[in-house]
Amino acid sequence: MPSKRDDGAPRPRVLILGGGFAGVGAAQKLKDADAEVVLVDKHDYHTFQPLLYQLATGLLEETAVGHSLRDLLHDQENTTVHQDVVSAIDLGAREVRFEQLAPLSYDFLVLGMGAEVNFFGTEGAAEHAFPMYTLSDAMRLKDHVLERWEAADRDPSLVEDGALNIVVVGGGPTGVETAGALAELYRADFARDYRGISAEQSRIVLVEAGPEIFSMFKPNLREYAQKALEKRTVELMTGVAVGSVAPTRVTLKTGDVLNAHTLVWGAGLQGNLLVQSLGLELERGNRIGVGPELNPPDHPEVFAVGDIAAITDQKTGQVLPQLGSVALQSGHHAGETIARRLASKKTKPFAYKDKGTMATIGRGAAVVQMLGGKTMKGFKAQVAWGTVHLALLPTNEDRAKAVVDWAGEGFTHQRVGRISVQTDERAPA
Length: 429
Ligand SMILES: Cc1cc2nc3c(=O)[nH]c(=O)nc-3n(C[C@H](O)[C@H](O)[C@H](O)COP(=O)(O)OP(=O)(O)OC[C@H]3O[C@@H](n4cnc5c(N)ncnc54)[C@H](O)[C@@H]3O)c2cc1C
Description:
Elements: E1 13-17, H1 21-29, E2 36-41, E3 45-47, H2 52-56, H3 62-65, E4 66-68, H4 69-73, E5 79-83, E6 86-90, E7 95-98, E8 104-105, E9 108-111, E10 115-117, H5 125-128, E11 130-131, H6 135-154, H7 157-160, E12 166-169, H8 173-193, E13 204-208, H9 219-231, E14 234-238, E15 242-245, E16 249-252, E17 257-259, E18 262-265, E19 269-271, E20 282-283, E21 287-289, E22 302-304, E23 309-310, H10 324-342, E24 357-362, E25 365-369, E26 375-377, H11 379-392, H12 396-412
Parallel strand pairs: 1-2, 1-9, 2-5, 9-22, 11-18, 12-13, 12-18, 13-14, 21-23
Antiparallel strand pairs: 3-4, 6-7, 7-8, 10-19, 15-16, 16-17, 20-21, 24-25, 25-26
The structure holds flavin-adenine dinucleotide.
Residues 18-23, 40-43, 47, 49-50, 52-53, 85-86, 112-114, 132-133, 173-174, 272, 274, 306-308, 322-325, 327 line the site of flavin-adenine dinucleotide.
């Protein structure tokens, strides 16, 4: 669709920053709008974060977790995609600047740049921890774990130094899912493949500063998750915080030192740091507070959606959690609202449809808590988790690929992504 109308007047520009669930959701709802839609993301792919831990443990390949943004939107004639980093946003001048692209003005702006890891100032964490937020984080963790096992295979003395031990920080879904998946990788796959190393010589320790893991779930689900982790040999340490991180040692605030060459950080998020320069009042966790139509105060032309926004649920009065379904639904709502405004139609406030809170712990072990308080656990809950997450995947092709990989692993324990490719390896001269 040309950027000008038949009468020569320019089409209004909708600028979408971020190609996560929220940004892509907004773009999809603008497919038929009489507008020029521009989506900019620093990556050329959309990341499906809920499955990052499966990439990190070799259960899925990178193309099942990252999907080309251009491919996702290539059927939308009115939409252009650019890969670049947003460097500044001037809400007063209605202009966005980028690292390389020329500045872009807008008629409507959708802020969907997500959140960033928050190390809460923990010494050494930024340098040595492995966060789990991006596709490259997950691949870096996978490569590092594979590399440590190969190193220990060549030099068994490394095992005593903690080369195979992993400390996972955070007893929320990210930490629990990652610890459970790593334990299964260790006990089901590596135990068979590295015959010289006995499974007991490697530890996976989950550290949570609060009194319990899964604090967002009901007590019966918390207890179930704890038992399911312990069955998988994950050691739980609750009520303990990490004080500092070094390449091979983790020091707890109690002064205890754990020998571990790997620390996975799944403990905290904050809204994208760019929001601090917008001149808006921010809510807890560096998030942009928005009204019922997802606009920050005094900016009806700006929409903040997904993890970057603090969206209050109209039904409960609570701020909605940073979840894929909240991001997708709020992105859809922003796109629809803009399309309706462009067509001079009435708009309505955002109403979140809660599909339940859920998390997996390992094969056949998951928990689901529905809005009305009903709970599910075990295999049934894992099927529910799979169904909801397959629906969030961006294309049918991705869904089919995930089902095949999950089924394959379920029957054979084989992991399709269990190799480490060194991209800096040189060809022989
Ligand atoms: C490990 C993990 C597991 C999770 N598990 C679940 C789960 O099981 N179920 C669930 O519902 N939710 C889960 N979530 C949460 C869910 O993934 C997020 O709520 C969701 O991805 C938020 O979507 P978003 O579009 O707001 O942000 P994101 O998905 O983070 O997308 C933001 C986009 O903005 C881009 N961007 C950022 N900064 C810039 C910049 N300066 N310039 C250009 N582009 C930029 C990024 O590249 C990214 O593509 C999980 C999250 C993580 C990290």
